[in-house]
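[job 0412] stage=complex_fold ligand=adenosine-5'-triphosphate status=START
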Amino acid sequence: MTTTTVQATAEAVRLESVTKTYGAVRALDGVTWTFPRGGFTAVMGPSGSGKSTFLHCASGLDRPSEGGVRIGGVDIGRLSEAKRTLLRRKRIGFVFQDFNLIPSMDVEQNITLPLQLGGLEADPAWLAEVVRRVGLADRLRHRPSELSGGQQQRAALARALVTRPEVVFADEPTGALDPRTAREVLRLLREAVDTTGQTLVLVTHDPLAAAWADSAVFLSRGRIVDEMLRPTAAAVASRWESL
Ligand SMILES: Nc1ncnc2c1ncn2[C@@H]1O[C@H](COP(=O)(O)OP(=O)(O)OP(=O)(O)O)[C@@H](O)[C@H]1O
Ligand SMILES: [Mg+2]
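[job 0412] stage=complex_fold status=DONE, emitting structure tokens
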């Protein structure tokens, strides 16, 4: 089997004229966008505007109906299903609103699961660093049900970072958290960008969350209609009103 080489490009992810239709519904309508390496981008838009569909197509979880997606320079449309899955496991990290931890596994097993699935060696120093950052060093033997929501999301964040992925996609990662816990998770996401140059795409409808990003892009009816650099919560909220 040949390996898929991920190149050191300035773009982490590139979407080119991506359309996704579900029957008569055009969830994404010709979206072209580049996520720069080391950038933190918030993707915003009303419910049903296509945010999750955008994330699924950009991350290789789903295939566009039309158009192309490159991750680290690799055109994932040209990959077989198996290779796309492998690339995703090795090169993409995910954080979801409802944490998606495996209940029967302890925290350490959950965090290292992507390494197992991707057939990757654990780097003990990096694993320890990630665990330290999310503040779960003394919780590694606990099950998810024994953790608070914030702790569960911090475990999910460590799981997303453990492979040093090309890009981390987070879909409403603070949606189930109280404001203070949400801030803590956002601070950790920001830290991953600032200290390791992690590329991060955050889907959110919360202007306070978007204000942590370097840029906010606005989706409306499956199209990108605006971008705001150095977004503030107030500016985002006001742009939001007009969508
Ligand atoms: N699997 C699917 N089958 C049919 N329609 C779908 C499917 N997934 C999404 N859609 C439709 O595509 C459109 C965009 O949905 P999407 O989930 O991307 O929106 P969203 O912006 O993430 O919304 P929310 O903020 O509520 O999560 C909606 O009209 C939705 O009903
Ligand atoms: Mg969604």
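The pocket of magnesium ion (ligand 2) is lined by residues 51-52 (CB under 6 Å).
[job 0412] exit 0
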